[in-house]
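Human: If only I could read C-alpha cells as easily as an amino acid sequence. Take your time, and here it is.
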Amino acid sequence: MFDKNREVLLHLSLIKNIGPKIVLKIIKKYLKDSFINYKHPEIVLPKINLSKIYKYRIKDFIINFNLSEKMAAVLFNGLQKKDDLNREIKLIEKYKIDIITFLDDDYPDELKQIYSPPIILYCKGLGLSNFKYKKRISIVGARKANMYARTIINNLVSSLINNNYSIVSGGAIGVDSMAHLAAINFKGNTIVVLGSGLLCPYPEVNKDLFRNIIKSGGTLLSPFPLNTKPLKGNFPARNRIIAGLGVGCLVIQAAKKSGALITAQFALDEGRQVFAVPGDINDELSLGCHELIKQGAKIVSSIDDVLEEFGETNLDQKLEKKVCINKNFQENLILKNLKFPISADELSVKIGLDFNSLQEKLFDMELQGIIKQNIAGLWEII
C-alpha cells in the first residue's frame, strides 16, 4: 500500500508544526531538479526519491529548502521519530482507509491549484477517480437552514446530478446535510470534507448520514490524521478544500457572519465562480447571500443560472417525459401510500412512477403544504 514516497509524505504530514507549505517546498525542490512544474497535472511526474531526506542533517534542510534553523530542527527531529507514523499506518490498515498523496495520479487536479493544498487526503468510501461524474460543485450554507433551503437544494441538486455533477460539502447539520442527502436520494455522488479525522467524524449526529454516503457510492475525505478531534482551528483548512474541489461554490442561506461566507471567499480567492440563492429580505439567513450578490456573486433562480456560467445546456430540458399521468391522480396515489413515512425509493417502486418524476411531484406537494420530508429523509403527510 505504501511505497517510499507515500510513506515519506505521510510521515511529513504527521510532524507537528510542519504544514503543507513546507512539504510543498520539499516536493517542488525535487520536481524543480527534474525540470517539472507541479502545477501542470497533465505532465507525468518523474520518479523521485523523497526518502533520501532521512539522511539530511539540520544544515541540509536549511541549505536545500531555505528553512530557518528552528524549522529545520523541527523537521529533522520529527523525521528521527517514527512512532506516530507506524501508529497511523496500523490504523489505516485496520480501518481500511485509503490515502491520496499530492503526488498520486488520483489527487484532484483542481485541488493542486489552490493555496497550500493538503499533502495527504484520507479517504473512506468510493475513490475519487471512480466517481461516475468528475465535475464537482460545492454547496454550503447555514446550519439553521429551513424548509426553504431544503426545497431549493432538492431542486438544484436533482438538476446538477442530471447534468453530471458530483456534490461537495462539509457534512455539517443544515445545508451541508441537506445537500448530501439530496445527492443520495437522486442517485448521485457526494463528497464530505471533514474538519476532523475520519475516526472522529463530526458532527456525531451525522454518523448515520456518513455511513449512508459511503454505502451509496460517496466518500468521506479529511486532510487530518485519523484521530484528530474537530478543533476550531481545523475548519479554515477544511473550508478551503471544499472550495478547491468544486468548479464553483453555491451558497444557500447564510447569515452575515458565517463559515459559508468564508468558504465562498476561499472560492473567490482561487478564481472559482460563486453563486448565491436570494431569500426573504427579512430573514437573517438571507443576509449573507444578499451581501455576496452585492459583491458580484451570481444570483441563482434556477439551475440554468449555474450551468450557463460553464457554457452548458440543461440536460433536463432535453429529457422527454415518458410517464404521462393526470396530476390529481398522481397526488391521490402518492397520498394513498403515505399512511406511514416512506422513502422516495420505496414509493417509486410502489406506485410505478420513475424516480425523477416522483421527486418533482413530491416537491410540488411539499410546496403546497400537503406533505413534508422528516429528519430521517422519509416522506409523510403533514
